[in-house]
Amino acid sequence: MHYLITGGAGFIGSHFVEHLANDNQITVFDNYSTGHNIFKHKNVNYVTGDITDLSSLQQLQQPVDVVIHLAAALSVTESMTNPAKYHKINVLGSQNVYDTASRLNARTIVSASSAAVYGDCGRAHITESFPYAGISPYASSKFEMEQLHSNSAKMIFTRFFNVYGPRQDPRSPYTGVITAFMQRARSNQPLTIFGDGKQTRDFVFVKDLVRFVVDLVTFGAEGIFNIGTELETSIADLANIISTFGSGGVVFGAERNGDIKYSVSDCSKLKGIVSFDKKTVLEKGVEKTWEWFVKGNGHEWIHSEL
């Protein structure tokens, strides 16, 4: 099959490319603003462009079977001060991608959404039927994106919970807490927890996420799917795991605007389709991420040829 992957040089996108390249033709469309992970393979072609510029998407002319749309603006914190950017990229840019997918006769579009659309749901395990309750412009932009559709393709919207793993840039303002903690542990600096540390997240290893999404495509799924683990981990417990890699300990800072208190998925819908039990436990995933992190000597996330 021929896959078009927007944002395919980024953290999550590069893992899709790596997973799919041996048996499929891949076109990556990326502006390289946050990722430069280049996978050298005869089946992979890289096209430079921006999803907010419809004319640059005109570079894409070959028909595709599946579009995996990952290109996005990702920072909750930044969205609070620059909501227009998030609407432009995540809403208008996504419509450009969907229109391009129709032009290229794509049969399926997978569009990466976020658990941020649920807001703070207390201690409940969140199902896809929970109403929109986002508390940031980032969340709003992702929910608006889900209301858009292609004229012809089957749509899959994947609501990612907290994704982590190798190639996640710890210096980016969009990064996840795991690699941000690792950046500080590696320098023996204290890990900073914003808030009381009792807030919880559902951490999903990037390679598991890729497998889940590819299985959804393979089995002809459509609609909205949570992509998580159904396991809840407090930020304090996470800090205790990662603090063992350094000697700086843990400190606490003020809560950040737009952050939610608790988040954990119910993936019953996903489990009806994919091999859900074969997922990476957090401690093992953290270990694999740390191995990548120290191997990179602080530079691998800037530019890597995989």
Automatic annotation (TrEMBL):
- Which residue numbers delimit the NAD-dependent epimerase/dehydratase domain? 4-228
Note the InterPro entries from the entry: Epimerase_deHydtase, Lipid_A_modif_metabolic_enz, NAD(P)-bd_dom_sf
Pfam families named in the record = Epimerase (PF01370)
Alphabetical list of PANTHER family matching this protein = BIFUNCTIONAL POLYMYXIN RESISTANCE PROTEIN ARNA (PTHR43245), UDP-D-APIOSE_UDP-D-XYLOSE SYNTHASE 2 (PTHR43245:SF13)
State the name under which the record lists this protein.
Answer: UDP-glucose 4-epimerase
Please give the organism.
Answer: Hexamita inflata
